[in-house]
Amino acid sequence: MIEKLFPQPADNRYHGHKLAKWLLIFYTVKSFVAGSIHMFAADGGAQSIASITLDQFSQGAADSIVTIFGLWGMEQLVIGFISAVILWRYKSLIPFMALVYVIEYLGRFASHWYTPGVQSAHMPPGAVADNVLVPLALLMLVLSLWSQRK
Questions:
Q1: Rounded CA gap, 74 and 134, in Å?
Q2: 99 C-beta neighbours (distance < 10 Å), count
């Protein structure tokens, strides 16, 4: 399994299940879309999407939240870019990238237990989506490790 996660050499040969590759394409597009919104929306998506009532905070606190959302967007764009390069040139690293997404989404999901959480008017779409994205990422990882070769 370690050899499948960290192949030597990293090349463009992929032997996992085809569905895992398609799921990685989905996660890559999702990373670019969400990253662009968080990075380039005037409020970083904090109020317009996540319904965090920025107008109830001091200007400094609201600016800090928007900045954090922008930085989160940059992280999503970077992960999306790395994922796109893997899909284009280094397909043998698809299991590794699936593991990265599993860690990212499990970390987000688990953060509800070790952080105070986000106060918002309604459940942010990302929190709702995690209920699907976490198991889907785990499925992607398992399928990517499943060798199609006889």
A1: 21
A2: 18
Query: Closest Cα partner for 132 from 101, 93, 86, 94?
Result: 101
Pick the closest to residue 99 from 55, 137, 44 (CA basis): 137
Residue-wise pLDDT for 90-108, tens only, equals 999 999 999 999 999 999 8
**Residues 68, 73: Cα–Cα separation, whole Å:** 9
Q: Supply the Cα-derived Rg of the chain in whole angstroms.
A: 17
The H-or-E segment that residue 144 falls in is helix 125-145
Q: Identify the CA nearest to 41 among candidates 17, 14, 9, 76.
A: 76
Read off the pLDDT of residues 116-133 as tens digits, 9 standing for 90 and up. 877 788 888 877 888 899
Q: What angle do CA 124, 128, 129 make, to 5 degrees?
A: 110
Dig out the tokens for 23 from the structure: 């799921």
